[in-house]
Design a protein that fits this description.
By secondary structure, the protein is an alpha/beta fold. The chain has a domain of 87 residues: ANL, C-terminal domain (GMP Synthetase, Chain A, domain 3, 2-Layer Sandwich). The chain has 15 helices and 19 strands. The strands form five sheets. A six-stranded mixed β-sheet has the order 4-3-5-6-7-8. Strand 18, helix 15 and strand 19 form a beta-alpha-beta unit. The relative contact order is 0.11.
Length: 475
């Protein structure tokens, strides 16, 4: 009991100190420090990572020529999942060619057909746990009130936190609902982490079971794929959240890439206000994000952990990451994630806001901002690109639509015609009224005038494999 009290007091004080330090940081200095750290990380990998040394030799790169960030960007080759993980033994990707002291391995979803891997030593795991506990106090006050943290992540992924009470439930909605109900007298707040289609199922199953969600003070942590802003409204209404009253809970978006880091960026309060405002203001949307067909995930990140670039790769602004920790077991240098992305400095964000007369939305932290649009997969129909993210936005824009579907859908099309097949929930049926609701949602959110195909649950392709262990395949 005494040890628990001391630990909670420590994190309360540490969070206060962290906020003071973050508010005192200079965006320009952070950027310069990240560039210096990227050079150090490159030279460390060139000297000590066997596979990376071979890659440089094959590309005719003399590491001694890379002495400034311009040379780094110009000379250092991009790497990717294939050139790193498909072509090398795991030990040769590690510092000094040694993987035997690794204590944990993370894998990607395998969605692309190729797996990537992240390795951590026990020391890495312990540092990650302390960092996550600190973030949970900073954003959710987990050391100040009894908190239940529920992991609804697929593939057995656990959340390495020790500050809150923790349930690693996986994708079992019945377990999650039973524990939340049972611990209501004990916990003053609940945080549920998972991918948004599964979180949708948790909330709707709870409603069907007579759960009064607002009384449980639930927050959500989600990511993995681009989360539509309409999901925040839909889920927030079920949970009884009020954006002006944080005590009612919040929905926070984070992004992790298994081989890079479990969390590479997170949605700060400033990011959340920006994204919510841009969703209803086209001028602000364009100033911040450009003429894009859907809202990106909008996050800030710590440039002491990652050096991020977004060069043009095959005609698309693409996320390229260099990991900076000198203790990292498997470093990655100029690693191309394949995600459509853009990095904005704090100054660039402020300039865009000033141009729109929205200085009130200026983020208080001078951390760089990462915008992610996902993989950019799409269909081209009648000369127009149609993205799955636009369809997700339509689904959650109308509660009558969202509550009728699993949020799984399949897009097909040719040069002239687009077809979208929506999987209905097991208890839902197609009707004229329901089809009209889907049509209206598609038209008002994405300008798509079309007849949706509402498919009974069991007749949808792969329906019986819907266990939320893999990402939905929309195309």
């Amino acid at each position: 009991m005494v040890r628990c009290f001391i630990r909670r007091a420590f994190y309360r004080l540490a969070a206060q100190a962290a906020w003071r330090r973050l508010h005192g940081l200079s965006g320009e200095r952070l950027g310069a420090n990240a560039e210096t750290a990227a050079l150090r990380a490159f030279h460390r990998a060139a000297r000590r990572v066997p596979a990376y040394g071979r890659l440089l030799a094959r590309n005719g790169i003399d590491a001694s020529k890379v002495q400034d960030i311009e040379a780094f960007r110009r000379l250092v080759p991009l790497t990717d999942k294939a050139s790193v993980f498909s072509e090398n033994e795991i030990a040769s990707l590690c510092v000094d060619g040694k993987a035997d002291d690794a204590a944990c391995i993370y894998t990607s979803s395998g969605y692309s057909g190729t797996f990537s891997f992240g390795l951590e030593t026990q020391a890495d795991i312990d540092r990650g746990r302390r960092t996550l506990d600190l973030l949970l106090q900073m954003y959710f006050h987990a050391a100040s009130k009894p908190t239940l943290l529920v992991s609804g992540m697929p593939m057995g992924l656990q959340i390495p936190a020790s500050l809150p009470m923790k349930l690693d439930a996986g994708v079992r909605t019945d377990t999650i609902l039973a524990v939340i109900r049972k611990l209501k007298p004990v916990c003053r707040q609940v945080i549920v982490a998972g991918e948004h289609p599964f979180l949708k199922k948790v909330l709707e199953d709870g409603v069907d079971a007579g759960m009064n969600w607002p009384e449980h003070r639930v927050s959500l942590l989600t990511g993995a794929e681009v989360v539509p802003e309409s999901f925040r409204s839909y889920a927030g209404n079920i949970l009884g959240q009020d954006p002006a009253t944080p005590e009612t809970g919040k929905i926070m978006i984070t992004t992790g890439i298994s081989e890079v880091g479990l969390v590479i960026g997170h949605e700060t309060d400033g990011c959340r206000r920006l994204r919510m405002a841009a969703a209803g203001n086209q001028a602000l949307w364009t100033a911040l994000f450009g003429q894009t067909p859907f809202l990106p995930t909008c996050m800030q990140y710590f440039p002491g952990d990652f050096y991020m670039e977004t060069p043009d790769v095959n005609g698309q602004s693409t996320l390229v990451v260099t990991t900076l920790s000198p203790r990292r077991k498997l470093p990655l240098i100029r690693y191309c994630t394949g995600d459509w992305a853009k990095v904005l400095t704090h100054r660039e964000v402020c300039q865009a806001l000033e141009a729109c007369g929205r200085e009130d939305l200026r983020p208080p932290l001078e951390l760089p901002m990462l915008l992610l649009w996902g993989r950019g997969e799409h269909l081209t129909v009648a000369g127009r690109r149609i993205y799955p993210e636009q369809i997700k936005e339509a689904i959650y824009s109308d509660p009558a639509v969202a509550s009728a579907t699993t949020a799984n859908f399949r897009m097909t099309g040719d040069a002239d015609q687009l077809s979208i097949f929506f999987q209905l929930k097991p208890n839902a049926t197609s009707s004229d009224v329901r089809r009209k609701a889907f049509r209206t949602a598609l038209l008002t959110t994405s300008g798509l005038c079309m007849e949706p195909h509402l498919v009974p649950f069991a007749e949808f392709p792969g329906a019986m494999d819907l266990y939320y262990q893999r990402k939905f395949q929309y195309l």
